[in-house]
């Protein structure tokens, strides 16, 4: 039955997640990220002002806020062979790709299927806009870009995907998905459709977002930036902390003999609020429709979900709508957490970064907590107060959901599990 | 991959000189069309007058062609999943955003910021039609129409549902024009369905992805050549084929190492 007929999508065959990696302010590589989650160690830092302000923040009066910055980007350019692509977001993608055996896993898929049978779907909201911002700060005498920035392939939303495609030697289709803060969650939906239709045999899904002046001042202009580290779902929440991240995963069709304990994408759901460009639907209709579609594709009930990574931006509106959805739909015992106090809100990368946090929960490496939040806002009621976990926990999750809601009313929910419900070896690592 | 068959139930195109498919169809066949003065901005009836004044060109042209294609297909806009593709989004908005950030970032307006997201047209379409179905926004540089077709096509096959595909690009403005060669304003739209409808299907569209490299097929009409500098120009060979209403095979580049094989065949009952 089609979603267009007003019904729910039919069940999908699970996809194997055969490799993944991630980097953000809380940790570079999944081991460092898992340790930061287990220790609840936040990567947020106060944004320095005046002459100490980072290059990406641009000129102008300082913004009093905390940011999730990846510290290794400013001083580490791309290798010479890729120098034409050098800018902050491509550095972030490149450094992340070096982790967790990801390049080797992609090479194996390329050898097995052929380079043209491995696709790429990359989610990003602002892509390489920071490079265009820098060009506008140093315009040439003719009013155009300075010669160092006159690169049409770099000043376009698809630049990051084209770079990753070149860096990984992929020859299958490459698409950039850019639906604001749901971008890289939706990348997994596209990957499933490509695999289902037989366009390719493996898909690299990616989420990459680097800090830029657009994000900083854009969210400031909307009065959505917090002066203190963000406090998702707290009565004291005052807005978001922006951050940057890259995350990658390799998806393939389920093997005939399901890998015991293997990580799988079980379902996804996409829906629109049809309400407002920058505010959520007050009853969360689009978010709930996305959840319903994800549950239908996975063939599971919301009550079976035992771990949820919430969108949890710490904006007044998002958290109120999302808390009501969680209380309405999930079991009172669910472990719900909001990790943007650890990583910052990494925008287009958030969907896949938080999917990785779900995978770490399924592996039993850490069920994350909700940093900086002292208590759930009493306005959200006792059931949500029980569901929202402030502290990390040990022990593997069995069925994990990730929520991603973006500007333009764009919602996506992902569901992950382990193959055949097998017992997960907590020391299995990330590969 | 195995060739997949879709049907085209709705077709729309808008440019300053060709503000609608009926006119564009003639011009893309190489026939002379009445030389009306160019239309400055699309005027989508879906938006209230005050919204039309404020909306960026990219949103206006996307909503104009989306509504026209859905009307031709006889579909209900409120239930139709959609894919919006654009190489660059609204370049006028990007230029204004970057200028403000370089000079006085405190003056950045919240409206300009939310207009700058790549899914602005998708969001406005959902609001204007009340549609809560999945709506995506994608990009693929010089292959942006081809990647949009891949996204819409795989969705139609996977979910067994009609899908609205909208492609648009705007003219580069300000300093951006020194690095980005997109010119003019172009919007295209198709309603693609996995099942043939005797009442609505006007073409079948066979498609398959393959390894290989290829250039964009040459354009035949002066009207299409006049739009070739727009960043959505990789849509033009297919729209020329649709204008001719003949059995046509063509190949579109899909990135540096892939191609999309397409074949269109007119459907007798639905042919207008």
Give the N-terminus to C-terminus distance of chain A in angstroms. Answer: 36 Å
- Indicate the overall shape of chain B: globular
Q: What do we call the CATH topology of chain B?
A: Peroxisomal Thiolase, Chain A, domain 1
| Count of spatially separate domains of chain B | 1
Main beta sheet of chain A: 11 strands, mixed
List keywords for this structure.
heterodimer, A: 431 residues, alpha/beta, Peroxisomal Thiolase, Chain A, domain 1, eleven-stranded mixed sheet, two-stranded antiparallel ribbon, 12 helices, 29% helix, 18% strand, globular, disordered N terminus, disordered C terminus, B: 272 residues, alpha+beta, eight-stranded mixed sheet
Structural overview:
The complex is a heterodimer of chains A (431) and B (272). Chain A is of the alpha/beta class. Chain A has a single domain, classed as 3-Layer(aba) Sandwich (Peroxisomal Thiolase, Chain A, domain 1), CATH 3.40.47.10. Chain A contains 12 helices and 13 strands. In chain A, strands 1, 2, 5, 6, 7, 8, 9, 10, 11, 12 and 13 form an 11-stranded mixed sheet that branches. In chain A, β12 and β13 form a beta hairpin. The longest helix of chain A is centred in the middle third of the chain and has 15 residues, at 183-197. The two termini of chain A are 36 Å apart. Chain B has 272 residues and is of the alpha+beta class. Chain B has one domain (4-266): Thiolase/Chalcone synthase (Peroxisomal Thiolase, Chain A, domain 1, 3-Layer(aba) Sandwich). Chain B contains 9 helices and 8 strands. In chain B, strands 3-2-4-5-1-6-8-7 form an 8-stranded mixed sheet, sandwiched between helices. The model of chain B has no long low-confidence stretch (mean pLDDT 95). β6 of chain A pairs antiparallel with β3 (135-139) of chain B, so a sheet runs across the interface.
């Amino acid at each position: 039955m089609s979603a267009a007929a007003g019904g729910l999508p039919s069940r999908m065959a699970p996809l194997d997640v055969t490799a993944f990696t991630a980097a953000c302010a809380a940790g570079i590589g999944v081991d460092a990220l898992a340790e930061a989650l287990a220790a609840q160690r936040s990567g947020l830092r106060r944004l320095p002002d005046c002459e100490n302000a980072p290059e990406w923040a641009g000129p102008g009066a300082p913004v009093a806020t905390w940011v999730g910055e990846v510290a290794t980007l400013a001083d580490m350019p791309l290798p010479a062979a890729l120098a034409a692509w050098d800018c902050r977001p491509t550095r972030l993608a490149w450094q992340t790709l070096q982790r967790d055996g990801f390049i080797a896993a992609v090479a194996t898929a390329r050898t097995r299927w052929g380079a043209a049978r491995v696709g790429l779907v990359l989610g990003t909201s602002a892509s390489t806009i920071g490079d265009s911002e820098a060009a506008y700060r140093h315009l040439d005498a003719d009013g155009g870009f300075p010669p160092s920035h006159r690169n049409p392939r770099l000043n376009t939303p698809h630049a990051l995907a084209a770079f990753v495609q070149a860096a990984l030697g992929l020859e299958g289709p490459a698409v950039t998905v850019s639906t604001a803060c749901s971008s890289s969650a939706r990348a997994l939906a596209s990957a499933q459709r490509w695999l289902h239709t037989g366009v390719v045999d493996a898909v690299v899904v990616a989420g990459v977002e680097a800090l830029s002046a657009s994000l900083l001042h854009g969210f400031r202009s909307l009065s959505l930036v917090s002066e203190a580290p963000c406090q998702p779902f707290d009565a004291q929440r005052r807005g978001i902390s922006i951050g940057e991240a890259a995350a990658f995963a390799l998806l393939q069709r389920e093997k005939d003999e399901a890998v015991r304990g293997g990580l799988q994408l079980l379902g996804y759901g996409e829906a629109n609020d049809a309400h407002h460009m920058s505010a959520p639907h007050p009853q969360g209709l689009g978010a709930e429709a996305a959840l319903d579609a994800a549950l239908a594709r996975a063939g599971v009930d919301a009550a079976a979900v035992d771990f949820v990574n919430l969108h949890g931006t710490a904006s007044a509106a998002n958290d109120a709508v999302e808390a009501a959805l969680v209380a309405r739909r999930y079991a009172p015992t669910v472990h719900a957490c909001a990790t943007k106090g650890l990583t910052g809100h990494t925008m287009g990368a958030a969907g896949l970064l938080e999917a990785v946090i779900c995978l770490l929960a399924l592996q039993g490496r850490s069920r994350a907590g909700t940093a900086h939040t002292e208590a759930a806002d009493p306005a959200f009621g006792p059931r949500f107060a029980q569901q929202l976990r402030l502290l990390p926990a040990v022990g593997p999750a069995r069925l994990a959901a990730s929520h991603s809601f973006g500007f333009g009313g764009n919602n996506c929910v992902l569901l992950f599990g382990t193959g055949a419900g097998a017992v997960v070896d907590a020391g299995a690592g990330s590969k | 991959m195995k060739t997949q068959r879709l049907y085209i139930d709705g077709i729309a195109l808008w440019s300053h000189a060709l503000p609608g498919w009926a006119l564009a169809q003639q011009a893309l066949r190489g026939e002379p069309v009445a030389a009306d003065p160019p239309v400055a901005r699309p005027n989508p009836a879906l938006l209230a007058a005050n919204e039309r004044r404020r909306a960026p060109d990219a949103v206006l042209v996307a909503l104009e062609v989306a509504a026209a294609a859905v009307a031709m297909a006889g579909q209900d806009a409120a239930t139709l999943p959609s894919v919006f593709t654009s190489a660059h989004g609204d370049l006028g908005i990007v230029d204004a955003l970057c200028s403000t950030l370089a000079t006085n970032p405190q003056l950045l307006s919240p409206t300009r910021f939310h207009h700058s997201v790549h899914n602005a047209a998708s969001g406005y379409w959902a609001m204007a039609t009340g549609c809560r179905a999945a709506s995506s926004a994608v990009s693929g540089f010089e292959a942006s129409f081809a990647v949009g077709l891949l996204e819409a096509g795989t969705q139609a096959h996977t979910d067994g549902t009609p899908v609205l595909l909208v492609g648009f690009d705007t003219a580069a403005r300000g300093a951006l024009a020194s690095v980005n060669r997109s010119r003019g304003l172009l919007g295209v739209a198709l309603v693609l369905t996995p099942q043939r409808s005797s009442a609505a299907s006007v073409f079948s569209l066979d498609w398959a992805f393959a390894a290989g490299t290829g250039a964009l097929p040459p354009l035949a009409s002066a009207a299409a050549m006049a739009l070739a500098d727009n960043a959505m120009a990789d849509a033009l060979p297919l729209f020329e084929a649709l204008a001719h209403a003949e059995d046509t095979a063509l190949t579109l580049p899909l990135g540096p190492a892939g191609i999309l094989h397409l074949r269109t065949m007119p459907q007798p009952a639905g042919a207008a």
